Amino acid sequence: MPSPFFRKIQTLKLIPQHPSKTSALQLLSELKTQGFTVEIRQVQRDLNTLSQLFEIENDGNKDIPGWYWKKEAEKLELPQMELPVALSFQLSEHYLSKLYPHAVMQHLSPYFKLSQKLLSSMDSPLSTWSNKVKLISRNQPLIAPIISESVLNSAYIALLSDTLIHATYKAVLQEKKEYELAPKAMVVVDQVIYLVAENLASNNLQHFALHRFSQIKNTDKPIHQDKSFSLDDYMSEGNFEYLYTNNPTIQLKLLVTEKAAYHLDELKLSDDQTIVPFDDEFLVTATVKNTDQLRWWILSYGDYVEVLEPESLRDEFAETADILYHIYHHNN
């Protein structure tokens, strides 16, 4: 679709019905917002051309003509996808496809194709926007595990219909086990998709990695809705960070290098974090969740960070350091 033609279609859509009206300058601003590269004279020429083909006119004001659809003009059905909408579809396909049920992805597929076709044919700054913004992770790049399409579809169907499932699941280093589950939510953590569900055998909320299901069977049994469940609460409780429930919150004190302190000043561990100079290094204190995620993060800094408190955590790292020393020096 040539850009000038599409620009004229969008211009027609922006013109209000009488008695409301708009000016060429207002139309210019809205077209630029939609990503069109256009000048005021082009808009004025478009309006004059369109007024000969469609039931639009201006109020005759010689200084700033006001344009509108005639009061008796018949409703004109025009293509609905605008450039910002097309860009939204394109970014959604790139970054949110894991969050859509399979049936929804199939329904959206024509819109994804149309958005791609529209953006690739337009001479607009929005056409190349997706090449200028990217979402990445600082974690070690890992290949996403393969999930059976039937498992994924069944999980989404259960979530949409609020129905129970019968599932076969193999946890890490355990045998396969049968479960009856009441799905509550879906969470994507890096490359892994988790199903948050109530285990009916224990009445506990758990999360299950979808790629570890070998089978999910849908049922027509409705789920008893627990209005107290909140996915935000479930996540904030540290369930995806491997929380130490016997001591969920700790006062962390670290001795860090200048480089690590600079980084932590930009990306804080907590709202109450403090950083103060200490000899040639810096003391960092913060109230944090006591999780495996915290331990992995500290380990990633190597000798840039020393744990001072709590003493129990310092002892853990001393033991880990000792084990690593023996691993790397056992042949020396």
TrEMBL record:
It holds the Pfam family WYL. PROSITE patterns: WYL. Residues 249-321 form the WCX domain. Residues 152-217 form the WYL domain. This is Uncharacterized protein. It comes from Hydrogenovibrio marinus. The lineage of its organism: Bacteria, Pseudomonadati, Pseudomonadota, Gammaproteobacteria, Thiotrichales.
